[in-house]
Write a sequence for this structure.
């Protein structure tokens, strides 16, 4: 369970974050939400797919980590076995909360940085959030930068997905996988780039994609699907 | 806006090989807009062979809001019109309908109900489960209703669940579904879509006269302020007035009130108690002493009404039954009385005029047959639009055969609901059981079904409206039992049957785990909408 509290330099002056324990937050994720800005890095390890949010039915970008709920094939021996870990995992144990107390009408929402004090990474060992004078540490500044990137990613993702939909560039993936132990699984509800359509875009459409720097993300998604093989390989090794 | 064809040739110059260029639809209710939309969506283009679609409607004639219930065909219709499901649901206060629950139809007791779901019985395409279900009624599993044993949808409905989730694609389903909709809003929604997206010419004016060619075809309709509107095909969507087919051509109306006794409806709009009140995902039809009450859950209100036979009860009595059903809030609601004259025109396509909707006929709304007939008619006209006047006679003949068959089958199927009732609280029910009132076609079928279940080969037309499964649901839901004593040898695949029964149970468990409530899904569609893919 998580328990989010707003961070301040009085209550949290002494608190420390054990960075080695952060990635454990993703130990049982089979889909990690992703932002467009990290697609090229993600593509080196994970299939990047679109899935629908269970609550809203709207598309979300995700890195595929496993074939069934609760399965993260990159989590092994209490370690994340990949060089690049999705931003959504690395952001732990920090979150952005709406500061409803200071909300002013017709103004963009104010955000406050919150900390999950139930996180296994929170304790008296590791990185401090503040120095002795109550000034933010380099570590905390970096953590806040990650949150800012995620926030930016939210609207960027939406614009990216809307563009893909408007150009009919998405299709659902129908993958039936049989593992070495003869178990098979059908991947449902995942969407990817419709490559056939990609080759038929008009030059106006291509230049629009280029202008928003979406081509890179689109091709990262296309190439990342190849990571499905390494994911199957991981699953096969694990089930031996 | 081109209302007058420049090539309009006066009486005498009419050429049967002229191509059909302009379709004029008279009347702008749901029938008018669905027909106009289907023709325009298929036939309007920028090419020389494009079909012009003109819809004339009076500003004065109020549309009758019939048919708040639909069939799953409506999904196909909306797709054909190029409408997004999210927009339709949001703007027509639509909700999901997964069939009908018939309460108090068998003996009138409190726990008397059965379902006519929209999902076929499990494994129906491969084998018929009804003999096995019958055999089980003697065994240890006795007591499971037919619909619950062979289909997972009844349980979904009883739990108030939706037929899909917010992650489902538009128009795709987990359990087959249709809609409940606000027909007034639906008509306006269709109009907006047709005008903005499908390039239909809209004339708001009163039709004051009909002008003939010398061969008796309609040449034009004269309007009060827009002059004559000429066309090659005229679609009569003028509602009960039946301005073209009925008034102008005097095509006779065939009443069927000797079979179906309902002749009046008292309709009322009932608000939900609070904004989180559950929305039933099925039509509820509750039998009364001389008719029945419909209860349809829209997104924002319920539509409730009592249809009754005035030969068997009075308006006061019927109002009283409706008040008992709704409760004390009825005092604040206004009740609208709608006369029902069950029947249809002797034919529907005469010369160059075809009637769609109430102008063609109307039956009591027991199985929501009004809108589906509009959809099927519009589909036929659009898909089989004659290219020249000469071939129109063939199209007309085929249309008439097809739809006469469909009306007769619907009448039979509606009557089936009344035949098997054991109710005796009013002569309404015994009169309904009187063989004199039962069409011969239905009597023959009932004879066959004494010894076997309804099967697809009982319904051999390409134009069937109700599949054999629907007859099974109603027959066995009403407590009818086929007698298999002469055909025990046919129960030779218990493995298959048991698998299907187990599968149904499993699907019920899965559905209950997976599906949101009908209200919850509709709220989410309002808030987020379905993703575009």
């Amino acid at each position: 369970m998580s328990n989010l509290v707003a961070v301040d330099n009085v209550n949290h002056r002494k608190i420390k974050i054990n960075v080695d324990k952060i990635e454990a937050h993703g130990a049982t994720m089979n889909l990690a939400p992703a932002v467009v800005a990290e697609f090229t890095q993600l593509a080196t390890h994970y299939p990047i797919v679109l899935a629908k949010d269970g609550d809203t039915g709207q598309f979300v970008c995700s890195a595929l980590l496993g074939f069934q709920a609760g399965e993260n094939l990159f989590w092994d021996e209490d370690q994340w076995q990949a060089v690049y870990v999705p931003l959504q995992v690395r952001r732990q144990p920090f979150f952005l909360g709406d500061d409803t107390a200071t909300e002013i009408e017709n103004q963009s929402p104010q955000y406050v940085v919150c900390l999950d004090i139930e996180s296994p990474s929170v304790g008296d060992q590791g990185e401090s959030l503040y120095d002795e004078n109550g000034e933010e540490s380099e570590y905390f500044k970096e953590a806040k930068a990650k949150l800012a990137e995620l926030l930016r990613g939210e609207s960027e993702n939406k614009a990216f997905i809307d563009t893909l939909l408007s150009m009919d560039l998405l299709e659902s993936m129908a993958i039936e996988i049989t593992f070495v132990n003869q178990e098979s699984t059908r991947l449902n509800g995942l969407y990817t780039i419709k490559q056939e359509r990609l080759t038929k875009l008009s030059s106006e459409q291509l230049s629009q994609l280029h202008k928003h720097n979406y081509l890179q993300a689109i091709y990262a998604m296309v190439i990342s699907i190849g990571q499905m093989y390494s994911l199957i390989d991981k699953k096969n090794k694990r089930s031996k | 806006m081109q209302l007058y064809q420049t090539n309009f040739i006066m009486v005498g110059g009419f050429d049967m090989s002229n191509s059909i260029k302009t379709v004029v639809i008279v009347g702008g209710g749901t029938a008018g807009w669905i027909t106009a939309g289907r023709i325009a969506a298929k036939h309007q283009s920028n090419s020389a062979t494009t079909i012009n679609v003109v819809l004339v409607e009076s500003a004065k004639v109020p549309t009758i809001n019939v048919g708040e219930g639909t069939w799953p065909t409506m999904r196909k219709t909306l797709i054909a019109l190029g409408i997004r499901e999210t927009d339709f649901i949001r703007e027509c206060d639509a909700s999901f309908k997964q069939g009908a629950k018939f309460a108090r139809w068998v003996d009138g007791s409190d726990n008397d109900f059965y379902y006519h779901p929209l999902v076929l019985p499990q494994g129906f395409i491969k084998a018929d489960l009804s003999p096995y279900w019958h055999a089980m009624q003697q065994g240890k599993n006795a007591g499971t209703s037919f619909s619950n044993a062979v289909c997972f949808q009844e349980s979904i409905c009883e739990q108030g669940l939706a037929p899909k989730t917010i992650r489902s694609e538009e128009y795709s389903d987990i359990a087959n579904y249709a809609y409940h909709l606000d027909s007034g809003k639906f008509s306006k929604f269709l109009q907006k879509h047709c005008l903005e997206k499908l390039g239909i010419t809209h004339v708001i004016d009163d039709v004051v006269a009909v002008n003939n060619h010398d061969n008796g075809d309609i040449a034009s309709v004269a309007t009060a302020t827009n002059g004559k509107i000429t066309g090659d095909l005229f679609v009569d969507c003028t509602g009960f007035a039946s301005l073209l087919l009925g008034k102008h051509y005097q095509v006779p109306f065939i009443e069927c009130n000797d079979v179906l006794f309902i002749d009046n409806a008292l309709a009322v709009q009932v608000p939900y108690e609070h904004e989180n009140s559950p929305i039933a995902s099925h039509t509820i039809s509750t039998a009364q002493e001389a008719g029945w009450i419909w209860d349809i859950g829209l997104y924002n209100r319920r539509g409730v009404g009592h249809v009754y036979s005035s030969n068997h009860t009075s308006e006061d009595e019927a109002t009283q039954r409706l008040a008992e059903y709704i409760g004390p809030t009825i005092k604040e609601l206004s009740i609208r009385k709608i006369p029902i004259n069950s029947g249809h025109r002797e034919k529907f396509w005469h010369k160059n005029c075809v009637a769609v909707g109430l102008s063609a006929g109307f039956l009591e709304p027991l199985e929501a047959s009004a809108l589906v007939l509009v959809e099927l008619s519009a589909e036929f006209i659009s898909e089989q639009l004659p290219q020249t006047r000469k071939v129109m006679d063939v199209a007309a003949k085929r249309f008439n055969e097809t739809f006469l068959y469909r009306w007769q089958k619907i009448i039979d199927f509606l009557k089936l609901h009344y035949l098997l009732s054991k109710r005796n609280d009013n002569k309404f029910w015994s009169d309904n059981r009187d063989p004199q009132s039962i069409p011969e076609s239905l009597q023959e079928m009932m004879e066959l079904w004494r010894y076997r279940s309804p099967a697809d080969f009982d319904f051999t037309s390409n134009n069937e409206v109700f599949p054999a499964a629907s007859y099974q649901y109603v027959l066995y839901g009403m407590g009818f039992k086929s007698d298999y004593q002469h055909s025990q040898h046919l129960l030779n695949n218990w493995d298959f049957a048991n698998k299907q029964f187990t599968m149904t149970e499993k699907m019920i468990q899965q559905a209950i785990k997976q599906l949101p409530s009908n209200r919850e899904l509709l709220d989410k569609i309002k808030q987020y909408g379905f993703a575009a893919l």
